[in-house]
Every structure is written in C-alpha cells, then in structure tokens.
Specification:
With 450 residues, the chain is mostly helical. The chain is built from 16 helices and 4 strands.
C-alpha cells in the first residue's frame, strides 16, 4: 500500500468532492431536528485511530489525541464529555461541525467563552491539524489539509494527497465505510513516516503520551506521580514551568509529606508511635486544593517546549525548593486551624500538634531561603543583578521575614503560647497566597512568564 494511490483525475476528484458535500449536507439536515437530543458522532474505533496520527502542535510533534484533549478541555472543562472521548469530540466536530458548535460553543453558558471561541477559531483555521509534513532542503514544514496554497517545490502528487486525503477520509466516515477509513488513516501515517520519519516520536513515546492524556482527566492524587513523570519525559524538561505544573508538584509534595510525617516517627522509634492522625486528613486535603487550582489552569496544562527564559540549570532547584516550602507552610496553616479547634475543645492532642508545627517551620524557612538565594544567582546571570525588587522577589522576601519571626519565640513571649502561635501561622499563609497568586496573576513583573 502506498499513500499516493488516490486518483489524480480532476473530473473524478470533482465528482468525489460533490458526492462528499451532498452526503455531508444530507447528514447534517437529517440530524438538525434533534441535534439537542443526540449529537452525530464518529465511531469510537475510527476516532481513536485518527487520534494516533501525528501533528505539529505547540511547536512539538505529538499525537492528534493531545490536540483533541486540549480542545475538549477548553470546550467542556474535561477530557471527556457525556461519555464522548476527546477524540470523538474533536473528530465529530470536524465532520458534523454545525450541531457540535451549537452545543458546545453557542449554547455553552460556562465561564471561559473567550478561550472557547479562540480554540474554535484555531480549529477552523487549520492550525490544530497540521498533519502533513514535507521536507524541502533541510527544513520540514507541516501543512493542514484543504485548499491552501502549497509551495511549488512540492510535487503535484504530494500536493494532491495533502489537499484531498482528508476529504476522502470524511467521505468514508460519513458513508460508513469503516475499512476504507482505516486504510486512509494508515496512508496518512505512511506519508508522515516517509516525509519526516526521523522526526516522529517513537512508538513507546507516542503510547506514553496517549496514556498521559487519559490521566489528565483523572484528579485522584494516586495518579500525580505518573502525571509528573510522563509530563517530564514527554515535554523534555522538568514540570515546574507554570502554574499548572507547580500546583501539580506541590500536591505531590504534600502527599509525600503526609506519608513521611505519619510513618516516620514509627520508623525512628522502631514501631512505637506515629505522627498525629490528623495529618492523614490535612495532607490530602491540601493536595486536593492544589489539584483544584491546577484544574483551572486552562491552556497552562498543555505540553509545550521550554521557553528560553526558563532554560537554566537553576530552574529545578529554585522552583522545587520554593514550592516545597509552600507545601510545608500550607500544612502549618491547616494544623493551625485544627489546633484552634483543639484549644476550644481543650484537647490533650494540642501539644503534639503544636510540636509538629514548630518542627515543620525550620525546614520550611530554610527551603524558602535556599530558593531565594538560588533565584538571586539565577537573576544575576539572566538580568545582570542579584536583586531587582521585582514584585515576586519582594513578596518572597516578605514571606521569608513573616515566617522567620516565630523562630525567635524566645524573645517574643506571645509565640510561646499555642493560641497566638497558631493564629499567627494561619494568617501568615496570606503572604504565601499573595506571593504566588497575587504576584503571578495581578502584579506581574519579570516573573510574569511563570
């Protein structure tokens, strides 16, 4: 089988195009009366196979399923919708666009209308389906199907395939020719291998990305490690470059801390005693809050190459140490709220919770200070000075000062009392919220790309 086995007869091409248009219009008219009840869809098997076709997206080559997943998340806030997979949503919209556009774009009252409209515009412009590579000299360009003007260097046979193969595929899908549709999909993959085989991801990496896309719709903490590991491998850089990735990492750190803080005392004392039981509630609770924030990240969840501004060996140590400190501060805040409840109940568990919170303060402050120092060294290399009083730098320093004050409890008698100490730790977390969310999304500055 060769990808070029389509007829080049212009009259036959016109005939096929007219036939496809008639079939498509017939299908659309037949479902217009009950589109709100049942949306026309492409079969699961065909949609899944199309999802494995490679595409140039976000300056990286990936399976079309990644594009479909991002598109579905923007349109429905989830990688699946009413039982339809991301591939089914994307491919069905591509063929039966009128009812799907009406259902998910025009009748959609959820927030994020601008993002949905932008995604639909990219869809219709062909930017999301650049699936046809062609090498000219040493450069490989990717083209969308359709009536675009192609470079003269591309032979007529290849131009015909780029422009017409998706029409033939659509015709096969609309007329229910499953085997014919599978054949055309395989020809498109063959075209990709012949034109850019050395650039395509390996089969193992493609399957890993397909698996990762399935995990993106699952918010259970047990899958965080897999998501982080796959995201690191697929993107080619440590997943600490934006709000989505840092929240995912912070959730993972909180779960690790939960296990360590609950079971470590038992290991140190050879089986005698464990950490406060409340930690196995507060840790996952904080992690779920991080996952909820990550779920609202929108386009930040997309896999993209590392921006030049973040291509530094300091990235991992700087961001990880700061986010680990934030995780510890979050636990101290929740422990503070629980301690206030224990104070009201006059519970004997108060001393144990207070001791744990005080012990967590030392590594938290050290980690934050380490992150600030590494960041200043990075700033010297990137911007020419160790400190620029950027909003992010300023608020990070304020947070460090805020959390350093309780360490000198010997000179401040109020901090010796559990009530004042825990009240302070609860309100101190506001500085972390301002440093992370306030600066990132309101104040901007030189860290606005994070």
């Amino acid at each position: 089988m060769t990808y070029s086995s389509f007829s080049l007869n212009p009259f036959k091409t016109l005939k096929h195009s007219a036939r496809y248009l008639i079939l498509a219009l017939t299908a659309l008219l037949s479902i217009s009366a009950h589109a709100s009840e049942t949306l026309p869809t492409v079969g699961k098997d065909i949609a899944r196979r199309i999802g494995t076709i490679h595409v140039l997206y976000n300056n990286r080559i990936c399976p079309l399923n990644t594009v479909a997943t991002d598109f579905a998340i923007k349109m429905t806030d989830s990688a699946s919708w009413h039982g339809y997979s991301a591939d089914e949503i994307f491919v069905s919209w591509m063929i039966y666009y009128t009812p799907w556009e009406k259902e998910l774009l025009l009748n959609n009252q959820r927030k994020g209308a601008n993002e949905r409209e932008a995604a639909a515009e990219m869809f219709y412009s062909g930017q999301l389906i650049r699936i046809f590579p062609y090498r000219i000299a040493d450069q490989v360009n990717w083209y969308s199907p359709g009536g675009q003007v192609l470079p003269r260097e591309i032979p007529v046979k290849e131009q015909f395939f780029i422009k017409q193969s998706m029409d033939y595929l659509t015709e096969a899908i609309v007329t229910g020719q499953h085997d014919r549709a599978v054949e055309i999909i395989e020809k498109i993959k063959l075209f990709q291998r012949e034109m850019a085989g050395d650039l395509l991801p390996s089969e193992h990496k493609t399957q890993a990305e397909l698996f990762y896309n399935k995990l993106r719709s699952i918010r259970f903490p047990v899958f965080i490690t897999a998501q982080l590991a796959l995201r690191w491998w697929l993107s080619g850089h440590v997943p600490l470059t934006n709000g989505y990735e840092t929240m995912l990492f912070m959730a993972w750190v909180l779960l690790v801390l939960t296990v360590v803080l609950y079971f470590l005392p038992s290991l140190l004392r050879r089986g005698r005693g464990r950490g406060p039981r409340i930690i196995i509630v507060l840790g996952p609770l904080a992690a779920c809050c991080c996952l909820a924030v990550a779920a609202m990240a929108g386009s930040e969840s997309e896999l993209t190459p590392l921006t030049p501004a973040l291509q530094s060996p300091y990235l991992t140590s700087h961001v990880s140490s700061v986010m680990c400190s934030y995780a510890l501060f979050a636990l101290q805040m929740l422990l503070g709220l629980w301690a206030l409840f224990l104070i009201i109940r006059k519970s004997a568990q108060l001393n144990k919770v207070t001791a744990l919170s005080r012990h967590l303060l030392y590594p938290a402050v050290i980690l934050l200070a380490t992150g600030i120092i590494i960041g200043s060294i990075w700033a010297k290399e990137a911007w020419g000075s160790y400190w620029s009083w950027d909003p992010k730098e300023t608020w990070a320093l304020i947070t460090l000062i805020v959390y350093t004050i309780p360490l000198i409890a010997a000179s401040i008698p109020a901090f010796r009392k559990p009530l004042y100490y825990h009240l302070y730790m609860v309100f101190a977390f506001l500085s972390v919220i301002i440093t992370y969310f306030g600066v990132n999304y309101l104040l901007g500055g030189m860290h606005s790309y994070v």
